[in-house]
Amino acid sequence: MSWPTTELDRIGTAVELDLAARRADGSLSPYTTMWVARAGDDLYVRSAYGPDSVWYRRALRHGRARIRAGGVERDVSLTHVAQDDPVHAGIDEAMHVKYDRYGERIVATVVGADATLVTLRLDTA
Q: Which domain holds residue 28?
């Protein structure tokens, strides 16, 4: 299912996104604030702290979450993006365009080869 254009635009231009993974019982984990990138007609998040980040492990385990960004709140499914997927170049570019103003050291946590390991696509649920 594709994103409604208005939601895609609002979330894609939001500076930050809050994500709470859904647990097996349907309850929400605490929200974690992160950066979000739009590449084409899809939205992506990456774990700035690698694969051991608590939110990332929960997200992978349950595959569902609730997000809030740009005035939009909705349930999403989470799909791990393969490391060799060509979309990573577009995600890196989008991250640089939106976040380079925060400095190279900070942006480096969500771009490049290491970031390709911990990339999730947000899909409408």
A: 5-120
Q: CA geometry: angle at 58 spanning 3 and 80, to 5°?
A: 50
Would you give per-residue pLDDT tens digits along the chain (125 residues)? 699 999 999 999 999 999 999 999 999 999 999 999 999 999 999 999 999 999 999 999 999 999 999 999 999 999 999 999 999 999 999 999 999 999 999 999 999 999 999 999 999 98
Does 125 reside within a domain?
no
Domain of 83: which CATH number? 2.30.110.10
d(C-alpha 31, C-alpha 46), whole Å: 15
Does residue 96 sit within a domain?
yes
What's the one-letter identity of residue 29?
A: S
Looking at the DSSP assignment, which residues form a beta bridge with residue 124?
Answer: 76
